[in-house]
Amino acid sequence: MTVTEQRSLLTICLMAAFADGMKDERERDAIKRVAETLAAPNEAPQLASVYQEVLLKRVDLAQVAATLSDPAHRQLAYELAVCVCDADGTANEAERRFLADLKETLGLDDPNTARANAEADSIADAPLAPLDPPMSPALAASRSLASNAPNVPESELDRYVLNHAIVNGALELLPQSLASMAIITLQIKLVYRIGKAYGYELDKGHIREFIATAGVGLTSQYVEQIGRKLIGGLLGGIAGGLGRGLGRAATGAAFSFASTYALGQLAKRYYAGGRQMSPELLRQTYESLLSQAKHLQGQYLSDIQQKARTLDVGQALREAAGG
User: Fold this and answer.
1) Which pTM was predicted?
2) Cα–Cα–Cα angle for 142, 260, 225, nearest 5°?
3) For a tag site, which of 16, 83, 205, 244 has the least CB within 10 Å?
4) Which domain holds residue 17?
5) How many domains does the chain have?
6) What is the mean pLDDT of each run of 10 residues along the chain (323 residues)?
7) DSSP-assigned letters across all residues of 12-64
8) Which of 124, 153, 181 is the endpoint of a domain?
9) Residue 204 maps to a domain
10) pLDDT tens per residue across span 114-138
11) Are residues 244 and 279 both part of a single domain?
């Protein structure tokens, strides 16, 4: 895949990110940071300039699509756009109109686009599975004395967070565009299950707001994951392959491991403390935990790589989709 084709795919991703016209300032700032991070001179598309062109509506979709002559790359562009639109929840009416225009502009047929829509929607609409482990009498007694104690041992919650971080780090190493979307859904489920362990019934709206307040943009996170894979050549030859084999390693595994681990630990502190953290304290605590998690990632790199080699992608996607 050429640099021009990379730039076109990333442009379409950014156009999809802003298609709904409702991104709040936190998400806009996060996407801008992603654009600046991925704009590596002499080796990658200048995504920072692409961001400005998209934001100022100076981009013509037909001209961008015209640079994608390979049918496989056109299909990949549509799949990526669908996942971007669904990253923060199922696509709304404005996003669906954008996807319809994109489909027509790219000259794609109905079966392939319908499949991409269905697969992404199944993950975006995934139910929040409860975590209701049996409570031992001793633990029940201790919980009656401390209302902010979880209904499982904290060591078990820590293992749960670590396992999720390793799985998400492994998903980052896979070439499938849908695998990157599954990372976000698994992070949402992780927060839900931790809140549940502390006695809170949460919905997706609350969890997405919690994650956004911590400074993690769902749409920007997906755009960043896909940007790294495109620039690293991980997606170049697998268009249309939502569910194909393992690709070569990408540098973003550390990011997905660290962000998942930090979110899990932040959720533990937040719900253990009765949801009393201010937005500023949430952001500061997340940044501190993220820094710690980035150092911790090195200890588990071999586990992440091993998980990527053995990970059943279909099973991971079914877990993300609630199946």
Assistant:
1) 0.81
2) 170
3) 205
4) 3-124
5) 2
6) 82 87 72 68 61 83 92 90 84 88 92 86 76 46 53 88 92 81 89 91 89 86 79 55 38 79 96 92 95 89 87 76 64
7) HHHHHHTTTS---HHHHHHHHHHHHHH--TTTS--HHHHHHHHHTT---HHHH
8) 124
9) yes
10) 988 888 888 888 778 644 444 444 5
11) yes
